[in-house]
Specification:
The complex is a heterodimer of chains A (363) and B (229). By secondary structure, chain A is of the alpha/beta class. In chain A, 31% of the residues lie in helices and 23% in strands. Chain A contains 13 helices and 16 strands. The chains are: A alpha/beta (363), B mainly alpha (229). Chain A: Keywords: ATP-binding, Nucleotide-binding, Transport.
């Protein structure tokens, strides 16, 4: 279900212009991210889609129909919404929270609760959390419940207003992965608001960069916005790391993966003049054993130096470079999809691939 | 004759015991019915105050003014305003309903203000219409703050009912006026003790009711055993 903004303006009585003549087409089944500094009208634009804010002029079409032709409450029941800080109802259990929209739409209680239980599973929460109250969950769990609640109506459109901004970076990354995984199954039309360009680039099929005063600065694929910012504002907003971020769109398929000497945790390592990668019985990397280190008897994890980030084969080259740069041995550990170590890369090798890449990254 | 002997004699009379039970029942009725009506009225006024923020100032001033009117004056004036007989218990009910509402308007507004805006916005985004959102989301969440105000109002009502005895409708207050006229202390003491006990019991019941209404408000801290976010 596509969404189209046609000459949409929102002006408040005090004269502030929140959104200025926005023209934008959001394609069916994609994630479109509205990104920009605070005061750029990104949340206002989002809230005009489900009529929580009414435009001063212009039209918003949802699947070709003007949203103002629908009853506001009924329109909203058909559009999933995830708000900042989850906005869960503190006085209802997790299960009732998720069942909110089905119950509002008049489903019978049992069916609504069954659907809610199903959705908890979909977003990766154990069923027993259903009986708890939101205050008994961690921030990340609350966000997942928020997503489950938005999915409950099974609406083709999902609006997400900075849904992951209140959780710590590690949890946020997990939630982002989860969203991408869900989207690959569900194929919703998702409009996502964030002030974080990294999040925008990570999640968006398309990114709309908005500037203060509510004007659209640039609309395109993340790679496009990073490589060809239209003006200084966009260039400044995507930041000085945009060259590095651009690596997110380059495959690392050509990087040579080299063998590395390994030792097994729990085995007898002997001695060596090289850095050796310690793996467990499943072949997963556990850390590094420094050169010439002596271990009495069995190798335990406390003998190891913590490893750097891991690079999963087949993902963008940014991860390979980061793995190499963050490794104590200067060797980035490459793992397969199951997390088994299959070799290492050096930063030099990664850079060679980047430099020899025909399109370049930032040119 | 010692006071205890006198008290024993007073309580020994079946007539007196009957009067005590009757006045106690009347006291409950005269204090608690207005409490319920006043809460409903205050919530309605609170809803108005939320819907029209500009009316808030006026509402709060009016509420304060109403509460300042001496109770006896109100008991006397009400019959001429609503056309009831002077000795009708409705007069006391109406007057105490007004006091309760006046006392609770501010707590109701504070309690509604304390509902997190994100929760209200998310209810709107889910497709709640305003009335249903108010009754099923905002109001239940206002209970913890509101409950404190209701406890004060219940005590205030239970004590004010006695004043009604001066116009002949005053629950346990009738024991005070009787005792005073007859220079007889036992009914006065019994009236005071029962008034205090009633206030205590009602307060206890309100605390229980608040706990029943807000099972979500005494939840332990988040469980730390978090595996996947």
């Amino acid at each position: 279900m596509g969404i189209e903004f046609r000459g949409v303006t929102k002006k408040y009585p005090d004269g502030t212009v929140a959104v200025d003549d926005l023209n934008l087409t959001i394609e069916d089944g994609t994630i479109t991210v509205f990104v920009g500094p605070s005061g750029c009208g990104k949340t206002t634009s989002l809230r005009m889609i489900n009529r929580m804010v009414e435009p001063t002029s212009g039209t918003i079409l949802l699947d070709g129909a003007d949203v103002r032709d629908s009853d506001a409450a009924l329109l909203r029941r058909g559009i999933g919404y995830v708000i900042q800080h989850a906005g869960l109802f503190p006085h209802r259990t997790v299960l009732s929270n998720v069942a909110t929209v089905p119950l509002l739409s008049g489903w019978d209680k049992r069916k609504a609760r069954e659907r809610a239980a199903e959705l908890l599973e979909t977003v990766g929460l154990p069923a027993e959390l259903g009986k708890r109250y939101p205050a008994q969950l961690s921030g990340g769990q609350q966000q997942r419940v928020g997503v489950a609640r938005a999915l409950a109506a099974d609406s083709p459109v999902l609006l997400m207003d900075e849904p992951f901004s209140a959780v710590d970076p590690v949890v946020r990354e997990g939630l982002q992965d989860e969203l991408l995984r869900l989207q690959s199954q569900l194929g919703k039309t998702i409009v996502f608001v964030t002030h974080d360009i990294d999040e925008a680039v990570r999640l968006g099929d398309k990114v709309a960069v908005l500037r203060v005063g509510g004007r659209l600065a640039q609309y395109g694929t993340p790679a496009d916005v990073l490589r060809h910012p239209v003006d200084d504002f966009v260039a400044g907003f995507v930041g000085k790391d945009r060259g590095y971020r651009g690596l997110s769109f380059l495959s690392a398929g050509d990087v040579l993966v080299e063998d590395v000497p390994t030792v097994r945790v729990g085995g007898a390592p002997g001695e060596s003049a090289d850095w050796r990668l310690a793996v467990n019985d499943e072949g997963e990397p556990r850390g590094w054993l420094p050169p010439s280190s002596t271990v009495d008897g069995e190798l335990s994890e406390s003998d190891l130096v913590a490893g750097g980030s891991l690079y999963q084969q087949g993902t963008p080259i940014r991860g390979a470079l980061d793995a190499a740069l963050s490794s104590p041995a200067s060797l980035g550990v490459v793992v397969d999809a199951d997390g088994k170590a299959i070799g290492v890369v050096t930063a030099r090798q990664v850079l060679d691939v980047i430099e020899n890449h025909p399109q370049g990254v930032t040119r | 004759m010692s006071f205890l002997d006198e008290l024993g004699q007073y309580l020994g009379s079946a007539n007196n015991r009957e009067q005590i039970v009757d006045t106690l029942a009347e006291h409950c009725y005269l204090a608690l019915l207005p409490l319920v009506l006043g809460i409903v009225l205050a919530i309605a006024i609170g809803w108005l105050g939320r819907a029209w923020p500009r009316a808030r100032g006026v509402i709060l001033v009016l509420a304060n003014l109403v509460y300042t009117i001496p109770s006896l004056a109100l008991f006397v004036v009400i019959p001429s305003l609503i056309g009831t007989k002077m000795l009708d218990s409705i007069n006391v009910v109406v007057a105490l309903t007004l006091y309760t509402a006046a006392l609770l308007v501010r707590p109701v507004l504070d309690a509604l203000d304390a509902v997190p805006p994100a929760v209200i916005a998310s209810a709107t985004a889910m497709g709640y219409r305003p009335a249903r959102r108010f009754l099923t989301v905002e109001l239940p969440l206002a209970v913890p703050v509101l409950a404190a105000g209701v406890r004060v109002a219940s005590v205030s009502n239970i004590s004010l009912v006695s004043v009604g005895a001066l116009i002949g409708v005053g629950g346990l207050g009738v024991l005070f006026t009787d005792g005073f006229q007859r220079e007889y202390f036992s009914p006065i003491v019994v009236g005071i003790v029962l008034t205090l006990l009633l206030a205590l019991v009602v307060d206890l019941l309100l605390v229980l009711l608040r706990r029943l209404l807000t099972p979500w408000d005494r939840t332990p801290a988040p469980v730390k055993t978090e595996v996947a976010a």
